[in-house]
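Posted in: Protein Modeling Q&A

I'm a second-year student putting together a small comparison for a lab meeting, and my supervisor asked me to include a predicted structure for Pyrimidine 5-nucleotidase. I've never done this before, so apologies if this is the wrong subforum. The sequence is pasted below exactly as I got it from our records. If anyone can share the structure token output, I'd also love a short note on what stands out.
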Amino acid sequence: DDRAIIFLDIDNTLYSASSKISQAMGKRIHEYFVKLGLDEDKASELHHKYYTQYGLALRGLVRHHEIDPLDFDKQCDGSLPLEDMIKPDPKLRKLLQDIDRSKAQVWALTNAYITHATRVLTILGVQDLIEGLIFCDYAQPNFSCKPEPEYYHNALKKAGITNPQKVYFIDDSRSNVLAAHRLGWAHCVHFCEHGLETVEGGRPKQIGADGQPALEDVTVVGQLEELRAVWRELFRED
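Accepted answer (user: helix_wrangler)
Welcome! Here is the predicted structure, written out as tokens:
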């Protein structure tokens, strides 16, 4: 396949952080830590530590607490009332339909397990427009996740991409975008809904309020529609 490839992050990118899914997820993950016998403060401490250290709290749980990641997924991601939190998005669907598929293939790239990823894409009404899915395989004992380099290398391998200059990538996590950029992914975009609140590692955070400078050669957008201009060469002209 000689086409370029678009890798779309899913959570807090294909839908807005205003959905409050990260808050609901953070609460469930905290409760999971508490069920391990930790008090509230220790649970909060480890939740944030593992998220910061590994990019995914579950990675720390698997490494240090010998938990079953599929059970974690069932109790956390799997228990989210997603149908009440997000809806089909015709505007998103039109955006993906307007990508010239003779120039680019469109994949999703997520730290979630396949069941959550597929569920979100289905609810949004865009699953049929996604040609491939890179997810964290919780069934594997040593799965990798963003922003670990191994995750990105595996993504390229699975997609059959050997030239990182052909990669277009968008993610709401600055760390994930920075990791991809360092590996030579050429067309990275940071999705940043300035002013909205999200939860990272169990702690509330106002998006864009950390004051970090923009990454060199990385475009920042607040709406996915801006990709029509940023990645103009990939969209149909009609």
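A couple of things worth pointing out for your meeting: The chain has a mean pLDDT of 96. Strands lie at 4-8, 104-109, 132-134, 167-171, 187-191, 197-200, 203-206, 219-221.
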